[in-house]
TrEMBL record, chain A:
Residues 1-78 form the Acylphosphatase-like domain. This is Carbamoyltransferase. It catalyses: C-terminal L-cysteinyl-[HypE protein] + carbamoyl phosphate + ATP + H2O = C-terminal S-carboxamide-L-cysteinyl-[HypE protein] + AMP + phosphate + diphosphate + H(+); an acyl phosphate + H2O = a carboxylate + phosphate + H(+). Belongs to the carbamoyltransferase HypF family. The keyword NAD does not apply. It holds the Pfam family Sua5_yciO_yrdC.
């Protein structure tokens, strides 16, 4: 990986140890030639791993005899020409401001005191400023800034921590801040102060971040947060909050403070005093620490938690270009805090949560993408995996490496679709990558599938079933090889039988799969309308379940919904009008949330299931499980949930609270799934279970299933580096397509 | 073989199986609603369509009326005025004679109202189950108005996109009637002939009327995509400008349908050179079938067909493959 300060680090150690030689980048590798005592060489080799820079990822060290005795002294040699790297080495992710730079930022004696663009080889922008590879200043957004003599001296001194820090800059020669609010403008420190004053006064500021514009307001001011929601047309979806520090245990703190600086979903109590509208109805807040000097400075002036959210309207991609941002954010932001260093690539903030003791990505973008991941089976031909539709990512695969592009959002948004094409083209150009094969979902109406149809003839396309891709993404990043069981608990995806799936247990390899079990089906009255309105999904389960519910007391839901809607939906279900059936775990949880009165209409994707989880967390004591039954149908194990919902309604009618019942629903799904997996393991002899799909972002399900499966003697694996949601689909598609190509299937 | 509701599936069937099978005697270039034919220097247009609809009778029309209007309108989309129609009935054994009578009478009434004679026909009675009640096929011959005929391939970037009236009425009415959903009390089919409207548009816009389509099966979304694809352009539509009657909007919301995907039988969409747009729009509004005409958007140089929503974001308006399957995961 370039841009992490590895060569200067080697130079420093080698010089300490009195070794002669050179260090240089060759393709994707670092080649070190040294001459000296055997102990010194051994200590150098040991230090390569033990003392490597935080952002470096040392995978393999090979030691062999040098061709000749090197000349005295130790030198760093410039990158070799634009050779084609074997994998995807060379394009590093952005790194949060390091401690050394931070010290300079707040040291009045330093020449970079309060300079918002301070950086060094251990920190600063990377992927968001690259024009071309190899990663050198002339091929970045910094090319237009000529270094002053002081910066140039640091840049060329192998002993300096700014040796070949490509974006190196100072107040004399680097980018400058600008502020614009109506007719008023300001520059430099004044711009910063003006922006801070605007935020303090409850206004909304558009801030040019690393991977695009962000919208910032005071997270403790209810009126400011409400205004941001209204202007952004984002009624309920939670906002992330930037804080100076957070009182969390050291393990979580290490994740928060890691060079990637992700947003981490943490208990709301960690950051008290926020306006309730920051995360309506939720028990967690997405918190993150400042990742650039500019964020540090702003937070330092304001000394309060700030809402920092992507600069866009509704589902659009984050604005990158200055003119575009000025136009698109004009109706949202009161003022613009910008600068003259262009953003070359769009990177949203990344989001992760801690489950089963490990950080697990929910949205993979800044700080993580485009760092390549390994593929379990190397692909014989370069391939592009086009991903899904929502939470879209794509993946480029070459040899044994997969480059998963940054989160791109909902492809139905024209700008997100354009950004997908542009980003795929840009990353392809950077890596001299040309896809020969395109992998895609089976859903014909996903715009990613339409892209694949346009980009390649049928002979060079590989269709991958949605849930196979989900579980393969989990298997691949966990480095599995043999066959595995896959639990894909998800919203909706198209099955290979043309029906909608989403609650599936599969026996899988990377090349194929067999369905072993599924959720019982229910109709979605109105298709996507039932997804947007979980109350309708509940009606679907009441009136159209594959295993009909026995008659019981009238559900509270029916008293709440407009009678004409109920009768129309019943009619649609009876007549099979626009009511496709799905075997979906996600939709089942939606229906439970609807029946429990937790969410009739979803304000954002997944809200019902999230509120069900929140309610379950509020429950006290051990949940009393609901009955469940697994039956055989057409050679599959099928979860008949009629008894589950029947008992739920009965207990609801008897006055049991929504919280206890929400906990009981979770417990039941966990128990049923563990039993189903145990049977599947017995039937197949396969004992490794890969858990994936959007529902595995639910901590109770993910935590309960891993614990339950392990107690049953099985191995349970979760996603970590790619999201369990549809953001991980493209990586799963790539793993499957690579294996099929390698085996000639 | 799955049957499409006018979306990409049937387009693929036509493009991959049916047209290639015709080889050298098949149509060249993009498919149009009607074909232009030249007979002894007379500029004519020819079109044929088969009509199946369940139920046969619905508020605002019936299978006979749409069989006439559909073919008249297909001719009109190439700026041809109907000269003669033929009609063929395929009747399922056991269909009450009265039903046949009503359908035939409706064909007669609709043709008379459109001012076009029905000059020839055919009737076949087939066994029970070999057809569903009655299928009607019409063919139409038209005389083209002078000047270059509008074509799906003639749209240009910058063209104004005009819509002659309300959308979504026909599809919602028929679906609601068939399934007993109750919306038919508030909505009626818009089936009607459009050739007089087209004549008025051509008089006002001449060759500036680049492309015309009547958005039947597949709805406005399909027509816009067909024109954009055939012309190599894109299109940007304002959602707020789309004329959707309130009952249709409410029904679509409950049914989970997008009005732009719902079938119509009595409106057209036109791509008109920007400098003729106002004149054409005025001419449309002067006719009863175009009284509600509006400008809904603009043709763009490239890219997908896009709808600018009330929120200001731009949504891709794609042609859907048959029945709309949820894309939300
Ligand atoms: Fe999914
Ligand atoms: Mg036709
Ligand atoms: Zn630094
Ligand atoms: Zn400088």
């Amino acid at each position: 990986m370039q841009g992490v300060g590895f060569r200067p680090f080697v130079h420093r150690i080698a010089t300490e140890l009195d070794l002669d030689g050179v260090v240089r980048n060759v393709g994707g590798d670092v080649l070190i030639e040294v001459g000296g005592t055997e102990t010194a060489v051994a200590r150098l080799v040991g230090a390569l791993r033990a003392r490597a820079p935080a952002a470096a990822d040392v995978r393999e060290i090979t030691v062999g005899p040098a061709p000749a005795t090197p000349a005295p002294g130790f030198r760093v040699v410039a990158s070799a020409g634009a050779g084609v790297p074997a994998g995807f080495a060379g394009l590093p992710a952005d790194l949060a401001t390091c401690d050394d730079c931070l010290r300079e930022l707040f040291d009045p004696a330093d020449r970079r005191y309060r300079y918002p663009f301070v950086n060094c080889t251990a920190c600063g922008p990377r992927a968001t400023i690259v024009d071309d590879l190899p990663y050198d200043r002339v091929r970045t957004a910094m090319a237009g800034f000529t270094m002053c003599p002081s910066c140039a001296a640091e840049y060329h001194d192998p002993a300096d921590r700014r040796f070949h820090a490509e974006p190196v800059a100072c107040p004399r020669c680097g980018p400058r801040l600008t502020w614009r609010e109506g007719g008023h403008t300001a520059e430099g420190e004044r711009a910063l102060t003006a922006a801070a004053c605007a935020v303090a006064a409850g206004r909304i500021v558009a801030l040019k971040g690393l991977g695009g514009y962000q919208l910032v307001c005071d997270a403790t001011a209810p009126a400011a947060v409400a205004r941001l929601r209204e202007r952004k047309h984002r009624p309920r979806k939670p906002f992330a909050v930037m804080v100076r520090d957070a009182g969390v245990d050291p393990g979580v703190r290490a994740v928060l403070a890691s060079p990637a600086r992700p947003i981490v979903l943490l208990p709301a109590a960690v950051c008290p005093g926020l306006a309730p509208a920051v995360a309506p109805g939720l028990d967690r807040t997405g918190l993150f620490l400042p990742c650039t000097p500019l964020h540090h400075l702003l937070l330092g002036l304001l000394r309060r938690p700030l809402v920092v959210t992507s600069g866009n309207r509704a589902d659009e991609p984050i604005a990158v270009d200055d003119a575009d941002a000025a136009e698109r954010l004009a109706g949202i932001a009161d003022g613009f805090l910008g600068h003259d260093r262009p953003v070359r690539a769009r990177y949203d903030d990344s989001v992760l949560q801690m489950i089963d003791g490990a950080p697990r990505l929910v949205r993979r973008a800044r700080g993580y993408a485009p760092r390549p991941l390994d593929l379990p089976v190397a692909t014989p031909r370069p391939l592009l995996a086009a991903g899904a539709q929502l939470k879209h990512t794509f993946t480029l695969a070459r040899g044994g490496r997969a480059l998963v592009g940054p989160h791109g959002g909902d492809l139905a948004d024209a700008d997100a679709l354009a950004a997908f094409r542009a980003t795929a083209a840009q990353l392809g150009r950077l890596h001299r990558f040309e896809a020969e094969v395109i992998a895609h979902d089976l859903h014909p109406d996903y715009l990613s599938t339409a892209y694949a149809r346009q980009a390649a003839p049928e002979s060079r396309r590989i269709g991958v079933q949605h849930h196979h891709a989900h579980v393969a993404s989990c298997a691949a990043e966990n480095g599995l090889d043999g066959p595995f069981l896959g639990v894909a608990y998800d919203g909706l995806g198209l099955g290979d039988d043309g029906r909608l799936w989403g609650g599936e247990v599969l026996l899988a390899t990377y090349t194929g799969f067999r369905r072993l079990g599924r959720f019982g089906t229910a109709p979605l009255p109105g298709g996507e309308a039932a997804v947007r309105r979980p109350a309708r999904m509940a009606l679907g389960c009441l009136y159209g379940a594959e295993f009909p519910l026995p008659p019981g007391p009238e559900p509270a839901l029916l008293g709440r919904l407009p009678a004409p809607e109920v009768s129309l939906v019943r009619r649609m279900i009876e007549r099979g009008v626009r009511s496709p059936r799905a075997s979906s775990a996600g939709r089942f949880l939606d229906a439970a949330a609807g029946l429990l009165g937790l969410c009739d209409d979803a304000g954002y994707e997944g809200e019902a299931a999230i509120l069900l989880e929140v309610a379950a967390h509020r429950a006290t004591g051990d949940p009393v499980p609901l009955p469940w039954r697994i039956t055989r149908r057409d050679g599959l194990w099928v979860y008949d949930w009629s008894g589950t919902l029947d008992a739920l309604l009965l207990r609801q009618a008897c006055g049991e609270g929504a919280e206890a019942l929400a906990a009981a629903v979770h417990r039941t799904v966990v128990d049923m799934t563990v039993a189903l997996c145990a049977r599947a393991a017995e039937q197949t002899g396969v004992t490794v279970v890969c858990l994936s799909g959007g529902c595995l972002q639910n901590r109770i399900l993910a935590g309960g299933l891993t614990a339950g499966l392990r107690a049953a003697g099985l191995t349970a694996l979760l996603n970590r580096d790619v999201p369990a949601n549809d953001g991980g689909i493209s990586y799963g598609q790539a793993a499957i397509a690579a294996a099929r190509l390698a085996e000639g299937i | 073989l799955g049957h499409g509701s006018g979306g990409r599936l049937s387009a693929e069937l036509i493009g991959r199986v049916l047209v290639p099978a015709l080889g050298a005697v098949g149509p060249a270039g993009p498919l149009e609603d009607a074909a232009l034919v030249e007979v002894d220097a007379a500029a004519l247009a020819l079109s044929t369509d088969a009509y199946v609809v369940d139920p046969l009778f619905f508020p605002g029309g019936d299978i006979g009326a749409i069989a006439v209007h559909g073919t008249v309108n297909d001719l009109a989309m190439r700026a041809a005025m109907p000269v003669a129609l033929t009609v063929a009935y395929i009747v399922e054994e056991g269909l009450p004679l009265d039903v046949l009578r009503r359908v035939a009478a409706s064909v007669g009434d609709a043709a008379a109202a459109a001012g076009v004679p029905v000059v020839s026909g055919d009737t076949k009675v087939v066994g029970r189950g070999a057809a569903d009640q009655i299928f009607v096929t019409t063919a139409g011959l038209g005389r083209r108005l002078p000047g270059a005929a509008p074509s799906a391939a003639r749209a240009r970037p910058g063209d104004a996109i005009l819509l002659s009236g309300l959308i979504g009425c026909h599809g919602v009415t028929v679906l609601s009637c068939r399934e007993g959903l109750g919306f038919e009390a508030d909505v009626v089919s818009d089936t009607r002939p459009l050739h007089r409207l087209v004549a008025a548009m051509m008089a006002a816009g001449g060759e500036g009327v680049h492309a015309l389509r009547d958005p039947t099966r597949g709805g406005l979304a399909s027509s816009l995509n067909e024109i954009a694809t055939a012309s190599g352009t894109g299109a940007e539509i304002e959602e707020s400008a789309l004329p959707v009657p309130e009952p249709v909007r409410a029904a679509c919301e409950l049914l989970g349908l997008d009005p732009v995907h719902v079938a119509n039988e009595g409106c057209l969409v036109a791509f008109v050179a920007a400098d003729r747009a106002d004149a054409v729009l005025a001419a449309m509004r002067a006719r009863p079938e175009g009284a509600g005409a509006v400008r809904i958007g603009t043709a763009t140089a490239a890219g997908p067909v896009v709808v600018r929503t009330a929120v200001g974001s731009r949504r891709v308006l794609d042609m859907l493959l048959g029945e709309q399957l949820p894309r939300i995961c």
